[in-house]
Amino acid sequence: MRIKKIIVLLILFVLLISFVPFGGMIKADEGYGLVTTDKGEMYRDTHGNLFPIVVIDGKREVKLNEYELAPLEALLERDAKESKGQSALPEEILKKYYASKDFSVSTSSYVTLPAIYSYKQGYWRWGNEWLGTHKRYTIVNKGCFLTSSAMMLATYNLTINGSIVDPLNLNTWMGSHNGFDSDDGLIFGAIANFPGISSVGYFESCSDAAIAIYYHIVPIIAVHHPGLHFCVLVKTNGEKNTTTNWIVNTYDAITGGSSYYAPERMYYAPYDNIAELSNYFSTLARVGYTFADSDIFRTAYPQ
User: Fold this and answer.
1) pTM for this structure?
2) Pick from 15-29, 64-78, 115-129, 216-230: least confident
3) The dihedral sign for the CA sequence 268, 271, 273, 279
4) Is residue 8 part of a domain?
5) 148 and 263 inside one domain
């Protein structure tokens, strides 16, 4: 009888405790935004963390800790993306970003890739090689996407047969891994099978590009110049603005000069001392580029 009483009491206890509201236990994606607490109005992120809201110069800011403030609008926008699953960034990157409570990637600050390998599509060793497998175009003519992809993979320190990735060996690798369509357009999805890469992503948001750069991921940006062109984004403040997005280009569009005699591989770290007229490091506005209509960004995520 005593055992039965204990079992009954345990069942009753479990039933009772299931009805107790635990206000602090909020599942991710259950809700975010402004909430009213006994401490006044606060901001709740998608992981249930609560932060005080302060007003500075008429603008509402979220106090993430004793020293760090972040614009309320920026946090709402990012939490909306994560909550609705709209971000194309991998889940582990988003979780790492949110868990750190580091919202320094905002519209008021720039992020910059710490370094990048740079190639020119017209370099003599590969410029006149056929792009893809159908011998329609050469790399110097149509190889900006291939060259940008080589820059990205080389920056991740990836190799092909023991040699750092460059446009020449990547062209061969892509050709043998279904990496070109019937018109020798590069199929970016094939890079998901490249050794050392976990997946690839396509996305529209400059804010996502800023988070990617924050974690040393290399975004390839599609632009109009006026035709479609690909280069590598290396600095941004997260705004979709041609004056606040900086690129390392695959050729010199400002001077119109040839890259035939350019250095085979340049390693930029940092960018501050690079002459802008060389077009190695320039804003989109400086070279007269505008954003592509869709799928503005492409990137591969290293393992």
Assistant:
1) 0.71
2) 15-29
3) positive
4) no
5) yes
